Amino acid sequence: MIPHRNTSQATDNRDFQGMLGNQVWALTSDKKDQSKPCIWMSSGAVAKKQCNNYFDCTSCKYDSAMEQRVADGKQISWQNSMRKRESMERTCRHSLTMRIAPRVCAYNYNCSSCDFDQYFEDVISQGTGRGEFAMHTIKGFDLPEGYFFHNAHTWAVVENGGSIKVGLDDFALKLLGEADALDLPLTGKELKRNVAGWGLRRKDHLADVLAPVNGVIVQVNEKVRRDPGRANRDPYGDGWLFSVHNSDIKGTMKALMDHQESMAWTGEEVNRLEEMIETVAGPMATDGGILRPDIYGNLPGLDWHQLTRVFLKNR
């Protein structure tokens, strides 16, 4: 046990920058994008509408319904609404969603012909992750804002472009210690929520990990496959495990715990863990201490199978 400092750490609010055509474009963090205006509202095509689909217009039911109204002649499109503005006020759709610095559209909103649009979707959105995010700590276990959690200690977060990134949470990684190997799924494999989708191995011990979401694997973090310790060092950043495609992003994320729910749940999990530790190591200090990483490795009396059954929901 070491003294606990009850602090919440927020990272610097820095933007990602990408280069295209000898110009630098700034991509801002979207950790609270679900509360930002829908592109239909930002363009002035409708009076009021907040985005609740993480700017993934291709799977958005509202966007589909509005496009149908446009086709029926009952609604002006957001593109035509923007075309009515002065040329220098015709803002790029990615600026409208506040994910890049202000930029004028050079293609009259024919996005399929825009090299920057393709660059943004193919490179920036898929490759930069969530950017910076605020981190909270509960007795030494980190929880980032904007992430969603499954009760078997996995997390999921929606990326720009509509994919869902998945990983193990800080609690599980500190509990079990650094794995000798992570048995990650292959690209194309279909995952089912609450069913074992991959696993980890430490010496002669194995643990299954339940999938937090349904979907098809579209990308695997090969760096973590080669170096499992990367997940322990940066569980919510470079230690992500894989990305999943799911056509119902909103419904999928609603089934998981949001930040406030996950904070309360983590506190309960810590209490449960402390009770287990007391059975093998005696009464714990009551001075508000926190547990060191690699709890299993530092307390040989703990039973691997009991830990994985209780916290990872192994049978």
From TrEMBL:
The keyword Kinase does not apply. GO terms for cellular component: cytoplasm; glycine cleavage complex. Keywords: Lipoyl. GO terms for biological process: glycine decarboxylation via glycine cleavage system; protein lipoylation. SUPFAM superfamilies: Single hybrid motif. Pfam families: GCV_H. The keyword ATP-binding does not apply. PANTHER family: GLYCINE CLEAVAGE SYSTEM H PROTEIN, GLYCINE CLEAVAGE SYSTEM H PROTEIN-RELATED. This is Glycine cleavage system protein H.
